[in-house]
Amino acid sequence: MEVWIEKDALSGTFKSILENRQVKIVPNKGFSSVAFSHDNIKRLKYFQYDGKRVHILYFGDLDPSGEVIDNLIDKKLRQYGIYGVDFKRVAITEEQSRRFNLPHNPDPETYRKLRRDTRAASFMSKHNGELFQIEVDALQAYAPEEFRNLVQQSVDQYFDDDIYNEVLTDPEHTDEGINRLVKKEVQWLLRNLN
User: Fold this and answer.
1) Is residue 118 part of a domain?
2) H/E/C letters for each residue in 4-19?
3) Which of 35, 47, 157, 188 could cross-link with 52 by S-S, CB 3.0 to 4.6 Å?
4) Does residue 131 contact residue 124 with C-beta atoms inside 8 Å?
5) Tens of pLDDT, residues 32-42
6) Model confidence at 116, in pLDDT bands (50, 70, 90)?
7) How far apart are CA 45 and CA 54, in angstroms?
C-alpha cells in the first residue's frame, strides 16, 4: 500500500501524520514525468512479481487535470503491464468540497491557467458550468483535524497490528534475513534491467 500525493510540498505533512506506519509516500507532481513513471512502474511490477496486491491511495487537487488523473494513472499502469491495482482517490472529492465548504474561486492567474487546460470544457459540464481548482492544501487548512483523520483512516484500513508485530519478531528481519531479502531484490533487478 502506498500513498500518492499530487504535490511534493505536502510530503512532510503526510510523513508526520503517517510516521509510525512505514508507508511509502510518493509525490507525483500531477501528470508525471517519464522518470517518475519508470521508477514507479518498476517498483509496482516488483510487488506484483512478489505476489503482492497493490493498493494506491491518492490525494490530489480537484480541477480539470486533477479530476482525470485517476484514469490516466490506471491507463499508464495497464500500458506497462500492471493490472489489478486498487487505486482510490481519497481527496479532494466533490463531497469533501461541499462538506467542508472549501473555496472554489481561484486567483486570476490560476483561473487563466485553468481556462487553457484542454479538459476545462468537460470539467465545466460536470460542475454546473463552473471552472475551479480546490487544492489538497485547502482541506488541510479548512479542516485540519478531519484531514489528519482522513489520511490516517485511509491507511489504517490496510494496517494490521498483529502482522506488524509478527514482522518485527520474524527471523527475516535479522541481519541474515535482511541480507537474503537484499540478495533477492538485487537478483530481480538484474533480471529486469533490460
Assistant:
1) yes
2) EECCHHHHHHHHHHCC
3) 47
4) yes
5) 555 567 788 88
6) very high
7) 9
